[in-house]
Amino acid sequence: MFLMKFPQPTTPELIVPAGDWASLRAAVESGADSVYFGVKTLNMRHEASNFDPLEIKKVLKFLHGHGKKGYLTVNTIITEADRQKLKRILKEAKTAKVDAVILWDAAALSLAKKEGLTVHLSTQASVANADAVDFYARLGVSRIVLARECTLDDIQHIVKEIKKRKIACGIETFIHGAMCVSISGRCFMSEYSFDKS
Fold it and tell me: Distance (Å, rounded) from C-alpha 33 to C-alpha 105?
């Protein structure tokens, strides 16, 4: 992933995924600025090894000890059955001093804000225009991962609008191709067929 922060020009932030300790160490050793990671539930990288929720503190200690940021993904659909699990994960994230939580479900956004966590909106929200950026920024989202369908021209236009309107929200975008057939990673067929959102 790649982050563009606006309105102030800055050096881009290189953000990479890590699903286990080997990939976490490799990300740090390879010069990533930040790492996004999930725990064994409620994240879109379901097939990755992922970390145990009780390891969040250890992951953040490792990253912060190397001057890196850590972003926890809880970017699946949150069902009624998931709410208590999500609350426990967010409490652990707050205790561990996670730099931000990446999410898109409205319940997850509400619970994360109640915990006082910094929120980044996942590409799962399919934000593809400046009006949507403005909407989510007003809800307290500090960074938005744009929809993967956005072209470079789309991104340029959104950035111009953010600057023009003085919207206080960072923009992030994927710079690699998706590995599954979906729209912005919304794997509804996978959810229906295999109970994996």
Answer: 26
